[in-house]
Amino acid sequence: MVRIVGNKKAGSASGTNKKTTSSSSSTKSKSKGKAKSSTGTKTAYQEFMSQTMAELKDQHPSWSGEKRRAEMSRLWKMDPSNPKRET
Fold it and tell me: Where is the composition biased (Low complexity) (predicted)?
């Protein structure tokens, strides 16, 4: 595999055999997993989604993930814990 750096190919016959990296792991920290609010607690949306996903999996095991997410979205719009609830 040849990577293009600027106008030159890395590892080409130009005499330079430098390897490039896409990001520096020591300067940037990537968060993996579930997002949390700045206080470290789950948001109302995250709490609702985790509870509802578990309930829907139990009630409708044959549903695809896409269908469960569509149903959760519909339910969230009407949920009392939703600060932007549609009335």
Answer: 11-28
Contact between 68 and 53 under an 8 Å Cβ cutoff? The reply is yes
Query: For residue 75, what is the DSSP state?
Result: H
Count how many domains the chain has: 1
Question: 37 in a domain, yes or no?
Answer: no
Of 72, 77, 80, the closest CA to residue 53 belongs to 72
In a domain, 14, yes or no: no
Q: Contacts from 77-81 at CB under 8 Å and sequence distance 24+?
A: 79/48, 81/44, 81/47, 81/48
Phi, psi of 63, rounded to the nearest 5 degrees: -70, 145
Domain hosting residue 57, numbered range: 42-87
Give the pTM.
0.50
Residue 12 lies in a domain: no
